[in-house]
Amino acid sequence: MDAKMGLRQSISEAIDWGIENGILADFLKQNRSDVENMLMSEFSIDIAKDAWQEEAFLDGLKKGIEKSRADERRIFISILRTQGMSDEEIAKATGYTLDEI
Q1: Which of 17, 50, 86, 96 would disulfide-bridge 100, Cβ 3.0–4.6 Å?
Q2: DSSP 1-31
Q3: Per-residue pLDDT for 98 more than 90?
Q4: pTM, full prediction
Q5: One domain, residues 30 and 49
Q6: Rounded to an integer, what distance in angstroms lies between the CA atom of residue 10 and that of residue 15?
């Protein structure tokens, strides 16, 4: 077995071990091929840092959009309530559930 194949097998086993022991299990299941490819290539802290920053930015953006939508829903519901609509009427008109309202 050549060194590259030994490295690939070791990486695969390390990922399996992490998943089985609950260490970054969800991340490793979801990103296994990316992790394997990154570890097989020459590691660069600058490239990794850029990737982590991009991932954090996208995660923050997603959370911001979700919060914005929730805020818009609250404002919209508040306006409908000031117009005299009951929660049941708002649910019927908007398609929101009573829990969402």
Answers
A1: 96
A2: --HHHHHHHHHHHHHHHHHHTTSSHHHHHHH
A3: yes
A4: 0.46
A5: no
A6: 9
